[in-house]
């Protein structure tokens, strides 16, 4: 969720009409008062009446839907342009907009203008010596790759899958008496009349280029980073609340002393929560599983080690070594940068950065001549297009070129 | 509950006024399609409508106002898009009048904003039904119904046989809820048999 809990829009009148028209189009029977509302609305203007008519005609609906579809086709590209425009505007208006680029990046950015010229020259020049098969295109001329956005795939107990999109609102499914509701890009479980009985599991997975927020049946909030998944029961019962995580998530666990909350990641790491907020980074292509505590207390069991964390501490479990290391006073803003819409590249190596870009921009990274040993600093807004981020990184003496969604890193 | 929502709306409005780009990503995801649809219905030109929608969001970013409600903010965005669309239309009309000397009927031909917003929101809901289909069925609906591709071309693009395409389409029709979509898609199905 880029920033979290955005409100229900308050244009309730319009909203109801579109939903009723949809109901009619789907072929559901309207309640008497719904029918009345729709008729009143239609009698208010000729346009309203015409729309009510149009939706009963297949050819008209087809045409309207094609218009929508064509708009949808260009959406991502235009989103990239939109954010490039915003970035350009901030640059020309006030410097303070770039406060979050810490000093190092600002210095690099200043050098970037010069270096860009040099690297473009280098690219053009090296082209002369390359076999003619590869066409080298300057980054600026490639189609902007838009940043990721909210979205996920929900797998229900019966194995059926639903695509969750920030655009859609409403009840998306019913699981064992609980209504699964999607609102403003956030999923919640509404256990109105819970049916006792067997426990069923749901799974929410974000592909690359998507992140998602959900509220578990007990009220626990979960922010899921890109390329991650969480498995949980649609109702918690028994002695504990048990969920399984892959990838990265930030949790704000709802208090319930009777039912301890446990997160399982990988085969051997279990995090037992004692009422609290914390971040877990358990991507399998990272070196360690890192649990960082913000508030409360958590206990980590990994291999034969057990540790209880205090706020500001981080436990790094290294599966290859069956080892656990506790770090004190970690920078929690840095850990939560992803949830707050930023990339944090403070003291990061190039391959760490590239793994983050792969997940968020849905790209594949290859290294032409090994991984350059540069270290980076600073923060970058996650709403930048890929090209904008790369231009900033290029000032540290690495170079990129893009072939579709494949990013080639050159020393 | 109302109180909670109020606070969250406030949080969003503050983020927008503070030029928080994550809030603008949310705005883009929520309003962009509807703004384009709206403008397109006035000027009948998709690319121009895309520019107008994007420009409206950029203007919001540039404005210094803090809106008191999402409803007002939405009203502002749509007013910008409407004005830009009408100006564009006027510009086209002036150009046309210069060449044909048509006597102008200047009135705005009363655009039913409310009907258009409802129409566009409705299309979002209908399109979602297609977007949520399992991948293999969705592709079939997109190619045959939304892109009006011939079934031979669609089968070739997907790299499957005509028989396979027919089966997938049959299943897609079963998965869809909306009667008119089912009908629209099966009509296309008939055309396969005739070709």
UniProtKB/TrEMBL annotation, chain A:
| Residue ranges constituting the FecR protein domain according to the UniProt record | 203-299
GO molecular function per UniProt: sigma factor antagonist activity
Name the InterPro entries for this protein.
FecR, FecR_C, Ferrdict_sens_TM
Positions of the Protein FecR C-terminal domain: 343-409
Stored Gene3D superfamilies: 2.60.120.1440, 3.55.50.30
Any idea what this protein is called? Answer: FecR family protein
Species per Swiss-Prot/TrEMBL record: Chitinophaga skermanii
Automatic annotation (TrEMBL), chain B:
InterPro entries the UniProt entry points to = RNA_pol_sigma-70-like, RNA_pol_sigma-70_dom, RNA_pol_sigma70_r2, RNA_pol_sigma70_r4_t2, RNA_pol_sigma_r2, RNA_pol_sigma_r3/r4-like, WH-like_DNA-bd_sf
Q: Which residues form the RNA polymerase sigma factor 70 region 4 type domain?
A: 125-176
Gene Ontology MF terms: DNA binding; sigma factor activity
**Gene3D superfamilies for the chain:** 1.10.1740.10, Winged helix-like DNA-binding domain superfamily/Winged helix DNA-binding domain
| Pfam families for this protein | Sigma70_r2 (PF04542), Sigma70_r4_2 (PF08281)
Q: Which keywords label this protein?
A: Sigma factor, Transcription, Transcription regulation
In the UniProt record, does the keyword Membrane occur?
no
Please name the GO terms of the biological process aspect recorded for this protein, alphabetically.
Answer: DNA-templated transcription initiation
Signal peptide start-end: none
Domain RNA polymerase sigma-70 region as annotated: residue spans: 27-89
PANTHER family in alphabetical order: RNA POLYMERASE ECF-TYPE SIGMA FACTO, RNA POLYMERASE SIGMA-70 FACTOR ECF SUBFAMILY
Family assignment? Belongs to the sigma-70 factor family. ECF subfamily.
Q: What is the name listed in the Swiss-Prot or TrEMBL entry for this protein?
A: RNA polymerase sigma-70 factor (ECF subfamily)
Q: Which organism is it from?
A: Chitinophaga skermanii
């Amino acid at each position: 969720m880029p920033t979290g809990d955005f409100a229900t829009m308050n244009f309730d009148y319009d909203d109801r009409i579109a939903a009723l028209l949809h109901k009619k189009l789907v072929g559901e029977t309207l309640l008497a008062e719904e029918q009345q509302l729709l008729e009143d609305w239609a009698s208010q203007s000729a346009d309203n009446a015409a729309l009510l008519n149009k939706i009963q005609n297949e050819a008209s609906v087809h045409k309207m839907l094609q218009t929508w579809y064509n708009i949808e086709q260009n959406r991502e590209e235009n989103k990239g342009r939109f954010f490039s425009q915003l970035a350009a505007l901030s640059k020309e208006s006030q410097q303070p907009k770039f406060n979050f680029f810490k000093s190092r990046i600002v210095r690099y950015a200043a050098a970037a203008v010069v270096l860009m010229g040099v690297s473009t020259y280098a690219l053009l020049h090296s082209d002369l010596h390359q076999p003619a098969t590869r066409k080298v295109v300057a980054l600026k001329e490639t189609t902007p790759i838009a940043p990721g956005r909210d979205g996920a795939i929900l797998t229900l107990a019966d194995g059926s899958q639903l695509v969750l999109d920030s655009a859609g609102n409403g009840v998306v499914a019913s699981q064992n008496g609980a209504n699964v509701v999607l609102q403003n890009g956030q999923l919640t479980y509404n256990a109105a009349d819970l049916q006792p009985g067997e426990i069923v599991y749901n799974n929410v997975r974000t592909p690359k280029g998507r992140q998602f927020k959900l509220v578990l049946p007990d009220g626990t909030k979960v922010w899921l980073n890109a390329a991650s998944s969480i498995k949980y029961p649609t109702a918690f019962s028994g002695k504990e609340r048990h969920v399984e995580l892959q990838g990265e998530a930030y949790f704000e666990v709802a208090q319930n002393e009777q039912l301890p909350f446990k997160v399982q990641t990988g085969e051997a790491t279990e995090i037992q929560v004692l009422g609290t907020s914390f971040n877990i980074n358990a991507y399998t292509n990272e070196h360690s599983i890192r649990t960082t505590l913000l508030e409360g207390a958590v206990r980590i069991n990994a291999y034969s080690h057990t540790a209880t964390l205090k706020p500001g501490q981080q436990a790094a479990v290294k599966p290859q070594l069956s080892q656990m290391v506790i770090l004190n006073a970690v920078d929690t803003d840095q850990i939560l940068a992803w949830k707050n819409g930023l990339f944090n590249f403070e003291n990061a190596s190039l391959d760490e950065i590239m793994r983050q870009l792969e997940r968020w921009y849905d790209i594949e990274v290859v290294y032409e001549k090994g991984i350059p040993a540069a270290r980076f600093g600073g923060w970058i807004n996650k709403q930048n297009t890929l090209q904008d981020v790369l231009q900033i990184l290029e000032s540290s003496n690495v170079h990129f070129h893009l072939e579709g969604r494949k990013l080639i890193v050159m020393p | 509950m109302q109180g909670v929502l109020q606070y969250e709306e406030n949080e969003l409005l503050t983020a927008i006024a503070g030029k928080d780009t994550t809030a603008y990503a949310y705005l883009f995801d929520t309003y962009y399609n509807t703004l384009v649809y709206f403008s397109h219905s006035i000027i009948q030109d998709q690319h121009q409508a895309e520019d107008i929608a994007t420009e409206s969001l950029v203007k919001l970013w540039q404005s210094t106002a803090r809106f008191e409600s999402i409803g007002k903010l939405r009203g502002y965005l749509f007013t910008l898009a409407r004005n830009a669309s009408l100006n564009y239309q006027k510009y086209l009309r002036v150009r046309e009048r210069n060449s044909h000397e048509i006597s102008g009927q200047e009135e705005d031909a009363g655009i039913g904003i409310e009907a258009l917003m409802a129409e566009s929101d409705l299309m979002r809901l209908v399109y979602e039904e297609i977007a949520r289909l399992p991948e293999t069925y969705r592709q079939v609906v997109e190619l045959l119904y939304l892109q009006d591709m011939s079934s031979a071309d669609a089968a070739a693009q997907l790299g499957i046989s005509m028989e396979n395409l027919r089966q997938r389409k049959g299943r897609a029709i079963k998965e869809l809820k909306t009667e008119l979509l089912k009908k629209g898609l099966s009509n296309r199905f008939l055309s396969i048999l005739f070709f």
